[in-house]
Design goal:
The structure is a single chain. This protein has helices at residues 2-6, 10-37, 41-70, 75-100, 115-128, 138-156, 163-192, 196-234, 239-250, 253-279, 284-313, 318-350, 382-407, 415-434, 443-467, 476-498, 504-511. It is mainly α and 512 residues long. The chain is elongated and about 105 Å long. Belongs to the vinculin/alpha-catenin family. This is Alpha-catulin. Its main location: cytoplasm.
């Protein structure tokens, strides 16, 4: 990474990035294995977040660096590139902390307190009074409630909380104080005189206090999840991103400035949504996922803006356009991840938790072969999902290498370049499939794409044969040998893609 940050020539960058890509694949394997080994769910979630950042930033680093090399005097391009390197360094530092079980300068990990975890602890203490009237002080209980109610101000102070939700939260907060006062009064009396009537009154006070806290929990959950659902639905059209791409290509700096303001507003909404969801996420791993999502929106927003400004300053630049596309894709991908996160948070709240997540892309009836029997979705275990993800990342980095090589050709209309770019584009779609994203939704979509990929590979081999006549005698046998290898591999891919399989294990093996 340090070498990549310092390069000054495109040739040098391509050389070092190829090495960097190989190292990132190996690193993904190692961190994936480590993530599976971890017993602590919080550390697992933090490792998953770091790995997601590193994977997505690898593509960003490629296009941002190339844009900076192509436009060395462009300040917005430099800012864009520096942002990617900074984020990757932070992610690497977090991986180091997890695998070495240490934090820099001996800092203690300060986990942010959520309303859910606060209410859970508070209720445990209140219900503990049934067994022991003396194990904590009334001041401790009052302080715990104060902390919870302070956090509810994140909802009542938010511009995005509806008036109805705000009023209900304020009413329940006031009621919670009253219920606790009543509980403390009965509790203090019971400490002095443990009569049957007082113990019955204490039980009633405990039940009423816990019921009030449950209602408060339900209200903040409703406020956070309804806001999230509305925002995610509102932003699914990606109108601001589309407008930035169009105005950037037009070189319209004024319009780009207008839409960057709108994107900044959208970013603030989504960051606030993540903060409120964290309070109601229900588990520590989901809290960490919410924090990761908040960071992603916080960082990616300004990066899209700097990429759009660069394109507006250099509207004919192909790499500046591609760079903006990559950052916009990262934004869209995070929005898609938020929909899944929202479902998981609702599942925890409703008590539908414990089963492994279904990897919905494996396998389902495909649109490309109507004669196939309908297949039921199957659940991949963690190891199988990790294997698919690793293969996907390797494919992703190979497409980056191909794109870097084809860009060197002066004649972009050349048949070899066009076939290479076509195969790279298809390979990228397959990579997105391993992440549960993109246009390939089922295994049959993937297999159909593999057949087309193999056909394109055969065309590339044919073009290489024709091109070999222009190559020096020493290099010609090497080129022809590679072309023959490509033909052989494409034939094998065609056979595999067309082979009929049944059952989870066979389908998984075919996908690999």
């Amino acid at each position: 990474m340090e070498q990549l940050e310092k390069v000054s020539s495109f040739q040098e960058f391509v050389q070092i990035f190829s090495q960097f890509g190989n190292e990132m694949v190996e690193f993904a394997h190692l961190t994936g294995d480590r993530q599976n080994d971890l017993k602590d769910e919080k550390k697992k979630a933090r490792m998953a977040a770091s790995r997601a950042v590193l994977e997505k930033c690898t593509m960003m680093l490629l296009t941002a660096s190339k844009t900076c090399l192509r436009h060395p005097d462009c300040e917005s391009a430099r800012i864009n590139k520096d942002g990617v390197f900074h984020r990757m360094r932070l992610a690497l530092e977090q991986v180091i902390e997890i695998v070495t079980d240490s934090r820099p300068n001996g800092e203690n990990e300060m986990a942010p307190i959520s309303i859910y975890s606060g209410i859970k602890e508070f209720k445990n203490k209140v219900e503990g009074l049934r067994e022991n009237l003396y194990f904590l002080s009334k001041e401790n209980l009052s302080t715990m409630l104060e902390v919870i109610l302070e956090h509810t101000e994140d909802f009542t102070d938010s511009a995005y909380t509806s008036h109805e939700h705000r009023e209900h939260i304020l009413e329940l907060s006031k009621q919670a104080k009253m219920e606790l006062e009543q509980l403390v009064s009965v509790w203090m009396q019971a400490q002095n005189q443990k009569t049957k009537d007082l113990m019955e009154d204490l039980e009633v006070a405990i039940l009423k206090t816990c019921q009030c806290m449950n209602e408060l929990k339900r209200e903040v959950h409703s406020a956070a999840t309804s806001l999230a659902a509305d925002l995610l639905k509102y932003h699914t059209d990606h109108m601001v991103l589309k407008a930035l791409k169009i105005t950037g290509v037009e070189g319209n700096l004024e319009a780009v400035a207008e839409y960057t303001c709108k994107l900044s507003e959208q970013k603030e909404q989504l960051v606030e949504m993540c903060r409120l969801l964290r309070h109601v996420s229900g588990t520590e791993p989901l809290e960490i996922t919410c924090i990761h999502a908040e960071d992603t929106f916080q960082v990616t927003g300004p990066q899209i803006i700097s990429a759009a400004e660069t394109l507006a300053l250099h509207p004919s630049s192909k790499i500046a356009k591609e760079n903006l596309e990559v950052f916009c894709e990262a934004w869209e991908s995070q929005l898609s991840d938020m929909s899944m996160l929202l479902r998981e948070i609702n599942d925890v709240f409703e008590g539908r938790r414990g089963e492994k997540r279904v990897y919905l892309s494996l396998p389902r009836p495909g649109k490309h072969n109507a004669n196939l029997k309908a297949l039921k979705p199957v659940k991949l275990d963690t190891e199988e999902q990790a294997k698919i993800a690793k293969l996907g990342l390797e494919l992703h980095l190979l497409t980056s290498d191909v794109d870097s090589e084809t860009e060197k050709w002066e004649d972009q209309e050349n048949e070899i370049v066009q076939h290479g770019q076509g195969m790279s584009s298809m390979a990228y779609s397959m990579y997105l499939f391993t992440r549960g994203e993109g246009l390939l939704k089922t295994t049959q979509d993937l297999f159909h794409q593999a057949e087309i990929f193999a056909t394109e590979g055969t065309k590339l081999a044919s073009a290489l044969h024709a091109f070999s006549d222009q190559v020096h005698d020493d290099d010609k046998p090497v080129l022809l040998l590679e072309a023959e290898k490509l033909i052989s591999m494409c034939k094998q891919l065609q056979i595999t893609a067309k082979a009929s399989v049944q059952g989870k294990s066979a389908t998984f093996t075919k996908v690999r």
